[in-house]
Amino acid sequence: MGLEFGIFDHVDRDDRPLDTFYEDRLKLIEAYDHAGIYGYHCAEHHSTPLGMAPSPSVYLAAIGARTKRLHFGPLVYTLALYHPVRLAEEICMLDQMSRGRLLVGVGKGISPIEVGYYGIDYKNADKMFAESLAIIMQVLTTRTVDFEGEFFRYKNVPFELEPFQKPHPQLWYGVVNPDSAARAAKAGMNFISNATATLLKGKVERYNATPNSMPSGAVPKLGMNRYMVLADSDEKALEIARRAYRRWWASFMKLWLKHGIPPTYVNYPPEIDGQIADGRAIVGTPARALEQLRAQLAESGANYMVCRFAFGDLSLAESLRSLELFQRHVMPGLRESVAVAAE
């Protein structure tokens, strides 16, 4: 399998009216579709400007109607917040209406604050995740559910829908360490990680060393996620990226600062310069981006290049310009590099 490209999007708020914000985002997603991007992955967050897609299925239904080839899905559905059979119904509807373009990311979420607002004790999130996923997979593959757990109980509940993809849509996971990479492999999931190339290499190696339950013949996508701001000069790109990232970081930290607790599982510096320094943000000319990404893909072993072209207060025009430069100058070079390395 050659190198594929994806998008990760918090769908974080800026100063535009919400109707304009959503329309601009959908226009950008249409551009991803035209550019040959494989997958679009949106986050789920609640009660925070970090996430303006708190109901991913509603948002994704609009994306499905506005695109033709682009695959799309949540990264992730926060399973503790869902009735699992109801969510399975939504998954089937989205997969059928898009003719098999749905990518189903699942997880327990990273914020005890957000799930707490919904009356969920975060200490139970792991158990609720495991039960919900088992129920969803049973429903998607057998069209009935019998389940007796701590949080969910069903007795011979019929299910009238089915997914377009068989036996079920692709499964995705956000990987934070080598142990979660192993869990993803055991569950037959693709993954995306925000880690540095060095740390990502350890996750890829652990994933590849773990028995995988993916459908026969499926090649897992192992994703490397990067902030991406490209311009005609390094100086211009850095000016844009610094401004936009500060707005994104304020949104990311809002609930954590309000409650006086540090973020769980992740650490983002307040300035994008820190992420540029460790390679998690690519900011500059297309030539610089190509050089850095070639090296990172080679080191990490990732085969799925995931970009964040929209974050903070980036305008539609700024995001489209980065995408245009990436599509024209970076994507062909990266595909060629990966193809040569595979020979």
Verbal overview:
The structure is a single chain. With 343 residues, the chain is α/β, with parallel strands linked by helices. The chain is 47% helix and 17% strand. The chain has 11 helices and 12 strands. The strands form 2 sheets. Strands 1, 2, 3, 4, 5, 8, 9, 10, 11 and 12 form a 10-stranded parallel beta sheet that branches. A two-stranded antiparallel ribbon has the order 6-7. The N and C termini lie close together (12 Å). The model has no long low-confidence stretch (mean pLDDT 96).
Question: Helices, strands, pairings?
Answer:
Blueprint: E1 4-9, H1 18-35, E2 39-42, H2 56-66, E3 71-74, E4 77-78, H3 84-97, E5 103-107, H4 112-117, H5 125-142, E6 144-148, E7 153-158, E8 170-174, H6 178-186, E9 190-193, H7 197-208, E10 222-230, H8 234-259, H9 272-277, E11 281-284, H10 286-300, E12 304-308, H11 316-342
Parallel strand pairs: 1-2, 1-12, 2-3, 4-5, 5-8, 8-9, 9-10, 10-11, 10-12
Antiparallel strand pairs: 6-7
Helix pairs in contact: 1-11, 2-3, 3-5, 6-7, 7-10, 10-11
Compose a concise summary of this entry.
By secondary structure, the protein is an alpha/beta fold.
- Structural class, by secondary structure, is alpha/beta
Integer average pLDDT: 96
Q: Please give the share of residues in helix.
A: 40-55%
Compute the separation of the termini in Å: 12 Å
Largest β sheet strand count, sense and barrel closure: 10 strands, parallel
Q: List segments where confidence is low: pLDDT < 50 over at least 5 consecutive residues.
A: none
Described by the principal axes of the CA atoms, the overall outline is globular
Strand content: 15-25%
- Helical segment count: 11
Strand segment count: 12
The succession of helices and strands, N to C, reads: EHEHEEHEHHEEEHEHEHHEHEH
Radius of gyration: 19 Å
